[in-house]
Amino acid sequence: MSEPASKFNELGLERDPFSTTIADEEIAAQYSLVGRDDQEYRLREFVQSGIREPDLMKRRLIFGEYGTGKSHHLIELRDEVREGVEVDGETYESLAVYVGNLGLSIRRLYEKIVEEILEDEPGLQDYVESLPDVEPDSSVDEAYQYERLQDNVATNLRKIVTHAREELGYRSVYLFIDEAEDIEAENDEQKVQRFIRSFLHLVNELNTSGLHILLGFSQGARMAITQYEDDDDSLGNALVQRFQGDDIYLGDLTESDVKEMLIDRMDAHRTSNRGEISPIVEDTVDVVTEVTGGHPRSILQIYSEALNYAAKVDADRIDGDAIVYALRDFTSLVRDEDLLSGEALTSLKKALEDAHPDARDDFERLEGRLIGEGDAIPENSFSDGVPGALMSPITVEGEDAGEIRVLEKRDRHGRYYYVLSEEAKDFLFRGKGDEGTETQKLDLQATNAPDKYQRDLSRGLALAVQSMGKGSLHKDPVTIAAGRYEYALHLIDVDRGPGKREQTVAVGVYNGQEIPVELLKLYVEAYQSRGATFGALVKQNQQQSAEANKYVNGLDSEERQFVTDRIIEVNLSTEQRDNFIYGRLLALGDSEIQAEGMVDGHTLISEIGIIGGLQETFTETILPYPDKVHRDVIEHLEKNDAREFTIGDLKDELDIQSYNLNGDIMGGLRDQNLVAKSGNRWVYPDIENDKPPWYEIYRRLNERGALTVDEIQDQLTTEFALGCSRGDENAMIQWYLDHLQRQNYVEPTTVEREGEIHDAYDIVSVEDQYNEARSRAQSRLDAAQELYDEAVSLDAKSINSYKNRIEDYSTQLEQFDEVFNPTHNDLNEVRSLIDDIVELEEDLEDAVSDRKEKIVGDAVSVRDDIDDLQRKISKSDVEGSFGSQLDDYDEELGELDTELESLVDNEQYERLAKRTGNIDDRVDTIDDEVEQLLGVKSKCTEKFKQLRDVADSAEDHIDAIAAENSSHTELEAELETIESRFDDYRDQFNSGEFKVALSTLEEIGPDLKSLKEQAQGIEQQQQQYLKQLDDLDPEISDEEGKELLEEARKTVKKGDFATAPTLIDDLRERAKGPTRREQFVAALREYNGSFRKIVTETDFDEAEAFSQLKDVYSDSTSDIEDITVVMANE
């Protein structure tokens, strides 16, 4: 039977090519990717980077909204990896896993990954099944079961990846995760955060496993995991930041890309017209692309609907009528709006009836061309008078009532054509999806109604700042009524980095003609009532209104200073405004606008530049008031200003946790001049050299004389912002003054103000400062002298030069003792000398530090030698007296190591230097003695092996001697005696008595050798005589001869080698002829001992001749004296 005809045959198609989604894995390979050359290149580059550097995880994000092709890209990339990845001319095998959805279960994610891995490589099945279940054992505490689960998942995946790479030869393993829809849809924050934590843990644990991850996200999913404002906020940001870096974005398609996509789809399901846009009317592509914004899946669904419509009405092409049918009430996949409003179309048609009697009929007849194809219709296609009527505004009733011009006229070569007007398009295509057009419309709204949208613009700015992870947004804005509308500022706590307090900033946007007074009132309210220390205003070079200027002039000095000095203004350039920056802010800030995919907050804030301006202002204007725990650190440094501290010292002495004090935090305090650094250690800052923040009070007192605390605060706030919470200003100023007092720079006094006496502070007099500086110089010189003495004791380098400098500075200091009325110049000279002495101290510290490092390094080297020697002893497996001796050595080495460790820990460098040399010599001695001891053991083993070989050989010789021979029993007895002595040796060796054991072996050696030689000689004689008798046996035939032969054998076996020759001679006389031996001897004589001639001229073959030669030569009674071998000439 023939196949049933497709309903699309009339359109030249075998089936609907637009109905299948790209996410269907089975059909993904059928269709090409279009318009994504750059993205495909970067995806392949990601894969190749995992091949070039396979061990360290490569991570990348691929962003794209629903229906933009993430699935298609990832599935195709997976298949390419499975076929082999070529890098630099070489092809590598790698595993590739595609997971359609990240999900919210770490166990389910694990199962899906394993399932995909086994699909790619079934050879891993047995290994995977051998792994333990990731589900924690029931004995595990319930509170820790989830943590154990995520640990087990990470462990199993690492093992699988490692096994695949090391045992099966795969270069890398890739994990492509398509979507995070579950995260976006889930309302349970706790559930989402727990999964994010687990997935982040998985990424961290597998960082060096050889696994590389490509993670697909929509903007909605990214916002879903980074939106929380509690302490867990860092989780989502941490995950995104872990993957960020050269992110890959899948945007929408251009018209040419759309056309290519449609042709590719149709070519897969037709045999004719391949490569052509037919049966689609080409003009519809431009319309659909513009309406959908180029969104791939929306376009496919629209053309699928249009194709089915065309088939239903038996059309042979997909024209504008089919497109209008498909677009009508089609809900956008990107925004919850209809692309072509059916209600608007109906309203327009009703309005056409009133405009002209024939207008509606004409419009309905031509709407496919006007709307679906965007065609220019010639004038003669309309009824008379209709074009003119529709070029004038007509009234349209309904929700968006108003006047609309329906047609616009075009002149082409003297003929008139009519197209649908932009007003009509906007009316009908309310949800038109072109991002640029949508943003442009929003920008126009924000520009034309600045007061109406000020609140939303400000919210958009705040959300964009928060999206960068630079701060946390307060829940409620500061608001004020402004005529018909409401202005708002949003408060955001801007993070300044470790060791620095966050600053609350009131952020706002205004793009009206001049800055209104209501906006300035909002900033003042944010400052006075909501804790804002700074403001930020994005504007466009507007000036304040006259009313606003009057308001500012009427403020008190504190409020006026905030408005004039603490509000950072960012003026947008014309170029920025031309890029619809207000429209983008409005898209973010208006909660009724679905801004996903329209605006990237990171890019927006980078363009505006507000963060950099804030941080620069913070650095220049804030006088810091650190948290209590960090104030304690600074005060501890001050109380111990003669010491230098590591961070570990400070944490231990102040009992501070690592999260409250680490290198980053100390670096932040140092950036604010709250602490200083000496080498690698931390110290209290010098007031005049390091200029800590309280120096600003000293500078003003020095310039203006005594000031009250209020006056000091007024002076400071004219230039700086106090970095404390509202209400803590006096505490902060007093904390600064306390530092200056304790450092003897200021002292309490009183001043008269308007006839009243007030407490105040003033600088210590020049003379007092001079005396204090001179005392400090002496103190520093004394410290330098101590360092010098230490350097001498440690035998540091350049000692003489340091000695000369100390003597020079001492002489200079003595000259200052003669100054009785010091001036500022004298004070400066003393301070300059202090600088020189401090520099000397630093040089001495470096010299001492270098020498200490050398001493410690030598000690560490010796400790390493001790450790090596102790390991040698522990592996020796020696017992007994030698074992005890080795134990003594090991104990002594341990004591020496402990001594060195103690000296290092207690920083007893001088003694450490001396003891290191002594201990090094002793370690060398012990090493030699251990080597000798272990050498005796080796000699025992080698000697024993040699003697055992001799004993075994002797035993073989004895066993070969006939049992009737009395020597057999005697020799066996001697061998048993020697074996008992071997037993003695074994006991001695096993008990560690190696020298005694070696002596025993040396005593056994001669006796064993003699025994072997004796047994060997008896065996040889026995074998020779028996061989001769065997040769005679065939020649003896008479009974008497046979008896004599048997008697001779018994004589030989008894070992009567004296009688045996006589009996053999008698038997030879009885022989019928010469024996084979006699024949061989005769041949030797005849051929002058030529072995070659005997073999070639007689009946002796080579084997028998060799055998006879051996017997004759070994017989001591034979006539053979020597055997000569003749070598061939070279």
From TrEMBL:
Gene3D superfamilies: 1.10.287.1490, P-loop containing nucleotide triphosphate hydrolases. Residues 767-850, 961-1028 form a coiled coil. The keyword Glycosyltransferase does not apply. It comes from the Archaea. Keywords: Coiled coil. InterPro entries: ExeA_AAA_ATPase_DNA-bind, P-loop_NTPase. The keyword Lipid metabolism does not apply. PANTHER family: GENERAL SECRETION PATHWAY PROTEIN A-RELATED, PHOSPHORIBULOKINASE _ URIDINE KINASE FAMILY. This is Uncharacterized protein. It comes from Haloterrigena salina JCM 13891. The lineage of its organism: Archaea, Methanobacteriati, Methanobacteriota, Stenosarchaea group, Halobacteria.
